[in-house]
Design a protein that fits this description.
By secondary structure, this protein is an alpha/beta fold. The chain contains 5 helices and 7 strands; from the N terminus they run ββαββαβαβαβα. 30% of the residues lie in helices and 19% in strands. The N terminus and C terminus are likely disordered.
């Protein structure tokens, strides 16, 4: 099992909560590069955000899948924004509510010109579910820089981690890291990937294409 790295040895993103939006229309004005964080409900997306920012208060962690229902914007010190997207897939809510959340995600991904990168969180034990693959196919076709975090790596031994990495690498063209929100494994590497994108310019006149509907 991976050992937990001392907190002082880890980088972190210094963020400040900006706003929550139920749809793209209510999103803050564009102008800074945004990296969206996506993933299936219960993949540990909120825990990943809390690890990256070094604060347990950044994103609410719940044992109930689908807790995040809004587009949550965080301003990053030094430039750029992190956008916590609602988890897709299973959620303990009615189907109409799930469809509304997912429509907001689809609209944001398809039409938000400030979108400069995507972080896709997967459970390393259950990677590349159908909706994960759809999102990866879209980000590849849209030329969006994408980082896949195989979260909960601490649940597997190193050999099993390497095996899962190899499987995922064969099936997706995105950058890839084993990650553990619990121990900090992969944290520094993930932040090193994020920072250049957050501080880069965005050509707001270049559309990224349309994302297919991700509803189940």
């Amino acid at each position: 099992m991976a050992k937990q790295a001392p907190e002082s040895d880890l980088q972190r993103l210094h963020v400040e909560f900006l706003t929550s939006a139920p749809s793209r229309r209510e999103c803050p004005p564009e102008g800074e590069p945004e990296i969206a964080v996506a993933g299936r409900s219960n993949a540990g997306k909120s825990s990943v955000l809390n690890r990256l920012t070094g604060s347990r208060r950044t994103a609410k962690v719940s044992k109930t899948p689908g807790r995040t229902q809004l587009l949550n914007f965080f301003s990053v010190r030094g430039g750029g924004r992190i956008v916590d997207l609602p988890g897709y897939g299973y959620a303990k809510s009615n189907l109409a509510a799930q469809r509304q959340w997912q429509a907001s995600v689809n609209d944001y991904l398809s039409n938000r010109d400030a979108l400069a990168g995507l972080v896709l969180v997967m459970d390393i034990r259950h990677p590349l579910q159908s909706l994960d693959e759809e999102l990866l196919a879209w980000s590849g076709a849209s030329d969006i820089p994408t980082l896949v975090l195989l979260n909960k790596a601490d649940k597997l031994k190193r050999g099993a981690q390497a095996k899962q990495m190899a499987i995922v690498k064969k099936r997706c063209g995105a950058d890839l890291l084993c990650f553990s929100a619990s121990t900090g494994q992969g944290n520094d590497e993930a932040i090193a990937w994020l920072q250049p994108i957050l501080t880069s310019g965005v050509d707001a006149t270049s559309p990224y294409g349309e994302v297919d509907d991700l509803d189940e």
